[in-house]
Amino acid sequence: MLENFSFRTIAEYLPLFGHGFLATLWLSVVSFAGALAVGIVLCAMNLQRSRLSKVPAKIYIDAIRATPLLAQLYFLYFGLPRLGIVLPELVVGILALSLNSGAYIAEIIRAGILSIARGQVEAGIASGMTYMQRMRLVVLPQAFRVTIPPLLGQAIVLVKDSALLSLISVSELTRAGQLLASDRFMPAEGFITTAACYLILYYGLKGLAALSGRWLGSQPMRSRT
Amino acid sequence: MIWQQFQGLIGSYPLALRGLGMTVALSLISLVLGTLIGFALGIVRTGSNQLISRVIGAWVDLIRGTPFLVQIFLIFFILPELGIELDAFTAGIIALSNLAACFICEIVAAGIRAVPNGQVEAALASGLSRRQRIQQVVLPQAMRMSLPPLVGQYVLLIKDSSVVSAIGLTDLTRVGWLVVQRVPNGLLVFAIVGVGYFIVCYPLILLARKLERRMGTAHGEVQL
After folding, report:
1. How far apart are CA A62 and CA A52, in angstroms?
2. I want to staple B42 with a disulfide (CB 3.0 to 4.6 A). Which of A167, B109, B158, B190 is the partner?
3. The domain A7-216 belongs to what CATH superfamily?
4. Domains of chain B
5. Which part of the chain is the ABC transmembrane type-1 domain (chain A) (predicted)?
6. For B77-102, what is each residue's pLDDT tens digit?
């Protein structure tokens, strides 16, 4: 039973969890920045008329969405050394998260851009704007409003997905829980503390999403969380 | 060298089949359980009892706010401490069904809330009982809206089933992990694992897209 749930042990391991919390936080931020870059490039490729740039982007996005992140992570972790590229686990993990989330972000941005009413673009054309001007002055500012809430939703998914990095022994939040569970045979203490730390991140991001929804005057977050 | 690797891969095909079978079994069982429980929870969540609705909402939030890997560890390691003995397969089913039920609950609840109020009022005016209102008026319309995100959720479920390999179940991902210890070619091995998932998931993704287009729901509702 759980009657001997040991808060003292948790207190003892608190520095480890603090370290794991910060590690999860910053590796998520770095991965999200990477994912944004990947997503913007993919989306730009996907919106071109030329098949030469469109088809590879579509194939990449579908391949990522139809396979689990864990398989992608192992693909890089066991596969990169084969190509002579030996990277630390942490870098492999960030790479996998960025490449994975990038595909989803590409679709979010695309949906945002396509949600702009056709008349807006036509008005831009009628005003004699170039393609770049239309994008910069008409489409993107409006698309920005629509994409912020689902982007924050994707950020929540990314933070949770980062737990998988513990399986390639990156020292982050879940790893801290595993250490406490295996060192002291206290899985309850370890994983409940881990879960609580993730909930802090989750509610933080969720609050941010609600806040941004109010600022931008759009609907509250409705994305996969 | 490559030839040897191919031989090694071909030699491990019974293992691969077992892994695929495990992935399919896990996904199918928890898909059925999760859908049933999710629908029940979704209907209760939109019902008139505020307290139960709140409790379900809080539980869904807890599940949505924590990584699936942590949930599996919690179930697998803590339920035995509470005196409930369970093997890895049962733990995997419980974790996956619970996850699916929570997401499907929200999908169904959103579908029910999207049914215009006038529909319920008309049913009330026609003297339909609560059961009839839900069965004949609300759910059929809510289903229309819930179907595309529901199929999308199934894709997520199949992909999430890969995480149960962490508690030692020999599913498709775990097989890849085992094979790569003998055949040191991670690119090839996990490309094949990926193809296995792709064959199962891609048709579902296409189906979800088709449904979404046909139902004419707004895009961006659920990202597959």
Report:
1. 16
2. B109
3. MetI-like (1.10.3720.10)
4. 2-215 (1.10.3720.10)
5. 21-210
6. 888 878 888 899 999 999 999 999 99
